[in-house]
Amino acid sequence: MTTENQGHKARIEYLRVENYRALRHVEFKNITPMTALLGPNGSGKSTVFDVFAFLSECFESGLRRAWDRRGRAKELKTRGGEGPVVIEIKYKEPSYPVITYHLAVDERKGAPVVMEEWLQWRRGSYGKPFRFLDYREGHGKAISGELPDEQDSRVDIPLKSSDLIAVNALGQFAEHPRVAALRDFITSWYVSYFSVDETRGQPEAGPQERLSRTGDNVANVIQYLAEQHPDRLEHIFSVLRARVPRVERVLAEAMPDGRLLLQIKDAPFDNPVLAKFASDGTLKMLAYLVLLYDPAPPPFVGIEEPENFLHPRLLPELAEECRAASERSQLLVTTHSPFFVNALAAEEVRVLYRDEQGYTQAVRAADISGVPEFMETGASLGHLWMEGRFGVGDPLVRSGAPARRGKAK
């Protein structure tokens, strides 16, 4: 089955976070197309997830709103930490060198300030890294052009306010294509907060291309797929039938009052069931499939705890759906399910835990001593986790640094 835009999206390769709640200093190197975060409650999984949501919201609705929604510096900054909140990502666009984006935010008089923001890359294998965008507190310079280089002139472009993000502002102009590419990349992220109750509503009729973060417009997306991509919708139904016995198809019917009615048709019965009476698991699996088989998939997708409301035996299947989708979108998943983890490779799993000072630390499962050896003998990753072989990520065992094999990646 062909998918639009396959293989033509940027991918995140590295993440560093400082002073963001329990993430005093955490790094994720060599990030894979599909990454799962494990760990006990309170280990920092949702906080890492929220880093992506925060950055996405900064670009969508502005830094101040994203900052205020999280309780400002009092709630957002690490307890006992010094300096600004720092988020740094390295990402790779096809046919371009790796680009590093650095954003540092602090607070003055209750308002967020962009203390430092820059973009840099290294042209050639041995070239010196240089910054083609460099801003501090609303003032800085940027180099225009498709391939900005040291020889190009930097232009001073002051921003109207110190809480504005330079990439978001300058990325709207054609003369900064690499800056615009990063802006488009981040604004296209999909960080989901699915709510089964939201999918039961009756939204206003009208096709919509992209599933909302809560899933409240799933009926609108099904309407869009039925009109524009019927083959894709039929494939979604075929997968849903394989996962949920007896489900025949899903209907999105426009009502006289202008609302859209979502109905589930069971194979043995003539009349469909209203979505508000359908099972939680059916609706959640439907929403995931609509997301994962998006005809124009987002470059990055975040999903929290997909196991909720789903039968455990469906989770390896869902993991495989996620793996297939990771060829089109980069996926980040948080989970507590060993059944989901069983379908993953050790390189795809990061185990989070709190150190003695209470700060989040992370280690790849592939770097934990003994794990690769057990998997070579046929052991499943989820079973090793439940047996306590990781040394961390077990809520019944006091957290500490795991034994590692070789150098951490």
Walk me through this protein's architecture.
The protein has 409 residues and is α+β, with helices and mostly antiparallel strands. It contains 13 helices and 17 strands. The protein has helices at 45-61, 63-69, 72-76, 166-170, 177-187, 196-199, 218-228, 230-243, 280-292, 315-325, 338-341, 371-376, 381-386; strands spanning 11-20, 23-28, 34-38, 85-92, 98-108, 111-121, 130-136, 139-143, 154-156, 190-191, 247-254, 260-266, 273-274, 300-304, 330-334, 349-354, 360-364. The protein has an eight-stranded antiparallel sheet. The chain has a six-stranded mixed sheet with strand order 10-14-15-3-16-17. Strands 11-12-13 form a three-stranded antiparallel sheet, with helices on one face. Helix 7 crosses helix 8 and helix 8 crosses helix 9. The protein starts with 10 loop residues before the first strand and ends in a 23-residue tail after the last helix.
